[in-house]
Amino acid sequence: MKGFLLLLVAIALFAQGRDDSAPKSVQGTVTDTSDKTVDGAVVQLKDTKTLQIRSFITKADGLYHFHGLNPNVDYELKAEYQAAASSTKTLSSFDTKKPSVINLKLDSKR
């Protein structure tokens, strides 16, 4: 009986440590075909449920980030700069990494 109670307590404590309703975030780096970071790339994040789009313009370090994302929604990410664009990548609602890292590589205009 003691073992069963300890198991229940352990499960309850584990469940408290996981909060699937907590907002998610995603970050990454935008690079060109020669793997150099891109200053001024526009990264778009599309909510696949509401179709709302958020944008982020990278600085010299090529980094972008989006915070406060709904953990129950899939998002699509892509980057554009001048005549180049990245492929579209998906941040899945099943991705539990916090923060998620999705790097984007520019290619020819799509």
Word description of this protein:
The chain is mainly β and 110 residues long. The protein has a single domain, classed as Immunoglobulin-like (Sandwich), CATH 2.60.40.1120. Helix content is 15%, strand content 40%. It contains 1 helix and 10 strands. Strand 2 and strand 3 form a beta hairpin. The longest helix is centred in the first third of the chain and has 16 residues. It is globular. About 13% of the residues have low confidence.
Supply database-style keywords:
globular, single chain, 10 strands, 6-stranded antiparallel β-sheet, 110 residues, mainly beta, 1 helix, 4-stranded mixed β-sheet, Immunoglobulin-like
SSE topology sketch:
Elements: H1 2-17, E1 24-31, E2 42-47, E3 53-57, E4 63-69, E5 75-81, E6 84-85, E7 89-91, E8 100-101, E9 104-105, E10 107-108
Parallel strand pairs: 1-8, 1-9
Antiparallel strand pairs: 1-4, 2-3, 2-5, 5-6, 5-7, 6-10
